[in-house]
Every structure is written in C-alpha cells, then in structure tokens.
Specification:
Structural class: mainly beta
Helix content: under 10%
Strand content: 25-35%
Radius of gyration: 16 Å
Order of helices and strands: EEEHEEEEEEEEEE
Number of helices: 1
CATH class of the largest domain: Mainly Beta
Distance between the termini: 43 Å
Largest sheet: 3 strands, antiparallel
Number of domains: 2
CATH architecture of the largest domain: Roll
Number of strands: 13
C-alpha cells in the first residue's frame, strides 16, 4: 500500500483516497490526487474550486446555474440558465460570492454552477 501524504490544511495523517480525491476525515479538506495544476495550487495553500462538470473556477469567471435554486426566507427562485458574471471564490460552505442579476449579492455552491467558456 502506498503512503498517503498528510493533509495540506491540518497536517493530519489519517488521509484516505476516494476516487481521484484525497480526503482528510478530521477537517473534511478534499484535494485532487493527480499532479496537475489544481494539485499544485492545493499544495501551495491556494483555493481550488470546481464546477459541477469538474472545471476549475477562478476569480472573475462567468458561470450559469444548472438547476433552479430557491432563496431561503423568500418565495423567489433563481432560474436555471441564469448567467452570473465576475464571481469571487471564498473558502466556506458557499464557495462563490457573486451578484445575481435581479436578486443581489449572495453566496452559491459550486456544485450548482457550470463555467461559461467564451
């Protein structure tokens, strides 16, 4: 069995492999096992956020929603296909900060968006 590297976030040695990802059970940090640019960014402490299709997102990207999202505390719904420009990545549960047209500033989860390629 190969030796697993320690978690880059908390240095835990209890890292396990799940498909192409390495996962730390202590801090729930996930990072890719492959040696591509995303893994290098994770090793350097950079934030790696992927969309629903696995494309790496960056600050300033444009994304579209892939499903209708209900707004908590409101009867409003953000419709599928809504284009959100100039996103900002943050390290939290809702890892995209943005301004949704007609709604305003809010946080989105990257699993509900896909990157728009121009």
């Amino acid at each position: 069995m190969s030796e697993m590297p320690p978690c880059p976030k908390c240095q835990s040695t209890y890292v396990y492999e799940d498909g192409a990802l390495l996962i730390c059970p202590e801090c729930a940090h996930e990072w890719p096992r492959t040696a591509d640019g995303a893994a290098e960014a994770a090793d350097e402490g950079g934030l790696v956020v992927r969309d629903a299709n696995g494309a790496v997102l960056q600050d300033g990207d444009t994304v579209t929603l892939i499903k209708d999202l209900k707004l908590k505390g409101s009867s409003d719904v953000i419709k599928v296909g809504t284009k959100v420009r100039n996103i900002r990545l943050v390290d939290s549960d809702h890892n995209i900060d943005c301004k949704v047209p007609g709604i305003g500033a809010m946080g989105l989860k990257s699993e509900f968006v896909k990157k728009v390629t121009d």
